[in-house]
Amino acid sequence: MTVARFWRKIPQRYNLIGTKCETCQTVFFPPRTLCPDCRRDGKIVDHHCGGKGTVVTFTVVRTASDQFSNLTPYVLAIIELDEGCRLTSQVICEPQEIFIGMKVKSVFRVITEDGPSGIIHYGTKFVPV
Amino acid sequence: MRDVAVIGVGCTQFGERWDTSFRELFVEAGTLAIEDAGIGGESIDALYVGNMSAGRFVEQEHIGALIADYAGLTRAGHVPATRVEAACASGGLAFRQAVLAVASGMEDIVVAAGVEKMTDAGDSTDVLAAAADREWEGFAGATFPGLYAMIATDYMHRYPLTREQLAMVAVKNHFHGSMNPLAQFQNEIRIDTVLRSTLVADPLRLFDCSPVSDGSAAVVVAPLERAREFCDTPVTVIGTAQASDTIALHDRRDISTLDASVAAGNRVFERARIERRDIDLVEVHDCFTIAEICAVEDLGFLKKGEAGRFYEEGQAYIGGELPVNTSGGLKACGHPVGATGIKQVYEVVTQLRGEAGRRQVDGAEIGMTQNVGGSGATVVCHLFRRT
Questions:
Q1: Is CATH 2.40.50.840 correct for A3-128?
Q2: What is the ipTM of this complex?
Q3: How close is the nearest chain A Cα to the Cα of B192, in Å?
Q4: Cα(A61)–Cα(B346) distance, integer angstroms
Q5: What are chain B's domains?
Q6: How far is A76 from chain B (nearest CA, A)?
């Protein structure tokens, strides 16, 4: 992966900085640069998400791509943040602990590595509250 | 707009084709299709080929030209060849481009093909994950089985569907596949086979998942008014529709309803001016068992939550109320990603011609295809009628 592709995602992946449309007040995480409802009438600004949310649905990934195979089994979920936006993330808990409606909060973790001497990709995972 | 008919079809054996290369697969299917149409290469005005990821699977891009070259279409006519990509819906989309080209009057005889060579790649799970949102799903560790598993978790939380009923989708598709000589898996399985198979992404097990496959399929379309010049049994394309939705599953209005499937389904039935009850068979995109459950509901054949009972009653079998995936579907026939949408057309046309052998749906007159890209970001539907 090129360095540029890595660093331009740092605010979002490290600090959950999404965007907000000031016209309709909708918060976007993952961030969007165009509001899908207001389109060109929308005004997009940065918005820092708080990191608290609720599990909408989940799975336990037991067969992963090579990049994630050392982590299996891991819990993967769609989480609705308190701001109303949804994202896909890992939840750090035992497979039998996860349930729909579980309250979670974000934590800063290593996600993957580009091989033994490559870039370490940090990002957000969630833990039960 | 002109009416369009399918005048020829061809499909390779699906499976692990270790001895056959990407380009050889396509030539095999294309040759079968033009022989079936009784035309020569000089009659072909254009070629559309559906292919998801030759760049990652076999490190080859520029697929249109490659295929035109090896199909012998560059020397005389310099036939225009265009690659179409929409992940797992690439084939259905290629077919739609061919139909639009003929309907518009721009072209007369057009080949629509699909091809994928998946077994040459090391990490096909990662290649397929590119059909979802790489930056916000793939980055977090989402796999394709993982995304459909989250659809299944949501569906089973909200609607009555047992783990056994979900397994019945795979059991039915293997039964249909056992009567399809081109299918990757021609063995019957039992509910236990599914329930005892290894977990891939809870609640989905290995036998809920379509396989990694090699294969190609091709069809030839022409204006309906000229179809009988080439073919005694043309099949008319009575509807084509396509719809888009968010690339990421987490951004959908409803996790276990594919809104693009609802939209494409509604559009295609409106355009063809027929009802759901007129359909004699449907090929849907069962990349995972839960996808078939969602498909029959989202296309409007059943209300949300009714599919479990429908499958338990065996109504999706040949001879049932609505035969679903008579080819064996993606599960048993195999899923060479870019070829699947064209294979669905191949199956429906074969059925409507009455040439499906042991798996023939008696008196089939109207059939449907539904091809899904990603976790539901692209859906393509077509309706066909025996002419």
A1: yes
A2: 0.97
A3: 20
A4: 34
A5: 4-123+213-235 (3.40.47.10), 124-209+237-386 (3.40.47.10)
A6: 7
